[in-house]
Amino acid sequence: MTNDRGLQDAQVKIGTKQTVKAVELGQAAEVYVAEDGDQRLTSKIVMLCNKQGVKITYVDTMLNLGKACGIEVGAAMAAVLKQ
Q1: Gene3D superfamilies under this entry (predicted)?
Q2: For the chain, which terminal residue's Cβ has fewer other Cβ atoms within 10 angstroms, N or C?
Q3: Segments of the chain assigned E as strands
Q4: What is the C-alpha separation between 32 and 22, in angstroms, rounded?
Q5: Whole-prediction pTM value?
């Protein structure tokens, strides 16, 4: 991720609903997807990102993605918003 504090310094939307909404509205600069997330959910965001031209970065586990976002639980996906 970007720095020692992970994604916490950037404006981030965490979770499936918020990430999908950010991409659909053209607000997402980059999307992080957990490789162990539910494939039904992650495959949809991957297709949407490809369609919208949003960069996707894969993270090995939901727990690591959650930690990078500064939360105590796992996250299947997160979107970094455009500045």
Answers
A1: 3.30.1330.30
A2: C
A3: 12-14, 28-34, 55-59, 77-81
A4: 13
A5: 0.88
Total count of residues recorded for the chain: 83
Number of Cβ within 10 Å of residue 17's Cβ equals 10
User: What is the per-residue pLDDT across 41-77, written as a single tens digit (0 to 9) for each?
Assistant: 999 999 999 999 999 999 999 999 999 999 999 999 9
CA-CA distance, 79 to 7, in Å (whole number)? 10
Residue-wise pLDDT for 16-33, tens only, equals 999 999 999 999 999 999
Task: Tell me the domains of the chain and their CATH numbers.
Answer: 12-81 (3.30.1330.30)
Burial of 5 (0-12, 13-18, 19+ CB in 10 A): exposed
On the question of pLDDT at 6 being above 90, the answer is no
